[in-house]
Amino acid sequence: MEIISMDWKVLNIPLKKPFKIALGTMENYEGVVVKICTEEFCGYGEASPSPKIVGDTVQSIVASLKRFKPLVIGQHVENYGKIMEEINRNMIHNSSAKAAIDFALFDILAQMAGMPLKNLLGGKKERIETSLTVDISSVERSVKHAEELLEQGAKVLKVKIGLNPDEDIERIKEIRKITDVRIRVDGNQGYSLRQAVKVLNAIDKYEIEFAEQPLPVGREEEMKILREKVPVAIMADESVHNSHDILNLIGKVDAINIKLMKSGGIYEALKMASIARAAGMKIMVGCMIETKVGIAAGTHFALGVGVDYADLDGYWDLKEQPFDGLKYEKGYNYVYDKPGLGIKELSSIF
Ligand SMILES: [Mg+2]
To answer: How remote is the CA of residue 123 from the centroid of ligand 1, in Å?
Structure first.
């Protein structure tokens, strides 16, 4: 089926409150949504920039999409692998822009097949538990934030740490006092090896599921040492973008966080999941701040492949929801029983 159009729109949506993690603070979400159409079907995609993780901005995403457009128009969706590889040959990195095109192609493919995308990808699960995120603020405010998320049905909390070791220990201790749901932590590269050893050993007694990326990118050898010195499982996030990165992490971490914005979409993420499984690593599907277009793609991927964990709450902090595409109920993400990604525009974007 021939692709006849590819358009995009830049979104600027305020957050409900500033989102603070060890890498910095965000007040607005600026991202790009993409719509690709054949005569019969249209597919949606999204690119969420992360200058400090992927190395892109809204401006660089738009520039990449302009460059990729001639490689997409006139191609046949059935040859999606060929399209993605040509895009990869045309430009390295710029993975969020690639992900946006990849989602739209998979959306159309699944519509052609007449099934939800999760089924095209394997149909392993019907729903997946997602963590909800407590960002960094005072211990008191973190506890209050955790309380609010628990009221909304959270079954897993992901608590951001990595700026102040003593305060982080206190934060986990106080949150554990109010709940017995699972708690995972995310250091976003904020600690030194010495600090990570101290914090993870101290919080182990509060039953921590795993710790995401406590150390900076480039310190993968130290992650191996850390893994031997603490009882908490270690997950790589910012250290793993694509399938090549996983090879370098075998034996150094217990688990990886696949984010479609880092991998450049589902086509590459499927390779990552295979390698991680073969290496005996657990898999989480995570996200950036994204609308429900990106989060629906992540959820379909997580359900199709049947990953171990999900952290797919990126739209929660947005003040407005321009799209629908998934449902959250009592701690779980569900997708709709509709062909493709199942995206609906709630305000007219295109
Ligand atoms: Mg993370």
So the answer is: 26
